[in-house]
# Entry
Amino acid sequence: MTVLEQPGSSRNKSSLPGPPPDWRPRVDPAPLLPDAEPYRLLGTPAARGLDADLLKRLYAELVRGRRYNVQATALTRQGRLAVYPSSTGQEACQVAAALALEDRDWLFPSYRDTLAAVARGLDPVQALTLLRGDWHTGYDPHRHRIAPLCTPLATQLPHAVGLAHAARLKGDDVVALAMVGDGGTSEGDFHEALNFAAVWQAPAVFLVQNNGFAISVPLAKQSAAPSLAHKAVGYGMPGRLVDGNDAPALHEVLTEAVQRARRGGGPTLIEAITYRIEAHTNADDATRYRTDAEVEAWRAHDPIALLERELTARGLLTDEFAAATQDGAERLAADLRGRMNQDPALDPMDLFTHVFAEQTSQLRDQAAQLRAELDAEQTPAEEARP
Amino acid sequence: MTTTAPAATRKPATMAQALTRALHDAMAADPTVHLMGEDVGTLGGVFRITDGLAKEFGEDRCSDTPLAEAGILGTAVGMAMYGLRPVVEMQFDAFAYPAFEQLISHVSRMRNRTHGAVPMPLTIRVPYGGGIGGVEHHSDSSEAYYLATPGLQVVTPATVADAYGLLRAAIASDDPVVFLEPKRLYWSKDDWSPDAPTPVAPIGRAEIRRRGESATLITYGPSLPVCLEAAEAARAEGWDLEVLDLRSLMPFDDEAVCASVRRTGRAVVVHESPGFGGPGGEIAARITERCFHHLEAPVLRVAGFDIPYPPPMLERHHLPGVDRILDTVARLQWESGWTEGRGA
# Structure
């Protein structure tokens, strides 16, 4: 960060004693400001220089991600998922977030970010445990360095900052990437997390997926900021505005932010402009608050279609690659469908097992009560009669 | 708790000193223990409980945070996820409320949510209670909020030795502990052995502070000295009161409470927290469920009134005092007669 000379603009000259000159440090806001327009690569001359393998990797993940979204939505209709907040249309954000991180880094997803967790390597069934409803977190967060999918908005952001701070205190070059939506930026925890991150210069990256709506509430009712990325400046960290459907652009911006954090350069706020093509969840009716025409306009800016154009132009989308990509996506969907169609194994006694490391006498009593009820259920009615 | 320190090394010490020593010893014993909060670094905390710790252990281990309680507790969650053992200071009881979402939605649930994979070895120190002449928002007894949240341990010392022992136990615990510090007892003194501090007191065990036969006063934290004073005054009325210090509200020591009440046959719960929805109702229900046939009278409560905490010039009318406790003991149906001399 650039520290400016002490203030004293000509417009503000006073002959009276002012505050002593060390009244506060001055950070030059100019380098922190986001661009006026979202950063893009696809369709620009710079896209031609992009690594072919990276483009193909991104494309394969997007196609796989879209198929995952479609399959998970279908599972809600079959009663196999209690609810699914789809990231259809936001696959570039999900995939780029996962690919920008190293193994040792941590991802802090919200409930809409199951695809990011899957793209990072998490078993999709484990990723969907929360939404199937057989347990809250279906995986060991330490194993994948993926924090539990977080439902209370923006509350996982301070966790990311604390973890990044702790890693830095321990001397580990670990970065934490936290994901939040446009609605989540109104929450107090968003503010507190960004403020702590900047004060501590924590190796954290905040990715705001601005998908236009917080359930039904449009961004205009959510914030009067010039952009959500501009909020970064008030905390003293750089803000980046990027096309959230331009996978290579997003991947580049995220990777830069992660590398900067890893080098000790502190946190970055990234706003990705995207759109939630599906309703908030399968239980929501989006026609009550937006028009079909608006959705169609965004379909023309679909992340997969955009990347496909680039691949085609460069001759990278061979029949063989396209078929292999499609095949991989179908295998993911078939595996997910097959395993989600089996009833999960439930152990009601799990309700008491992990509340405390050391069971309290109160919970021991209650567990015994449930055990007895379960045993009674097992006993045929004839025998149970005295 | 019995103390094992040789009498020669014992000298008057305050609860505040014992708490500072507990933090110091925990930090010295375990490099993953990190203190964080508002003013805990350079200043040593507004009650000076962290005095000198930033200087001795460095500001990374005893750090002044931005003034934001949700941020303090939320970042502590992340630090705990990475293997640290954060000890968070909330400056005053009523200033902890912004952190409640983190406490309720994450701290209390993280172990359970992850099938035990992500424990939360956090200690949240909260100076609580009234009687210090504090202006609005500085005197709340907020324990009922914490007790209503499954997954939290709630502990409160009433003696200098327990301040040390329970705080060490809280920091050593692999589960989150809300450690309620009765701020009006910060400057209370006991003979204590700062050179050979008492071993760690177990969390979840109550302690009889005064043996008696007529009735049991069940209390904790700031009300313990009041109950002991009331028990002394009750002798003039012919009552020999037992005083039980709960020390840990969750886990709750049903065994010790029931053993005492079965012996005395009468019980009064005393706390500053408002009566309606307060711990006393739960305690009275548990006694009634477990000791009904041993009771000579309904379990009674002396609690704070069901009012927002009063301004300092009126707080003495609100806080449970000796007279109100004795008036309540007098209502324990002594006239029924047939049990007279029970247990004597």
Notes: The longest helix of chain B spans residues 15-29. Residues 1-5, 338-344 of chain B have pLDDT under 50 and may be disordered.
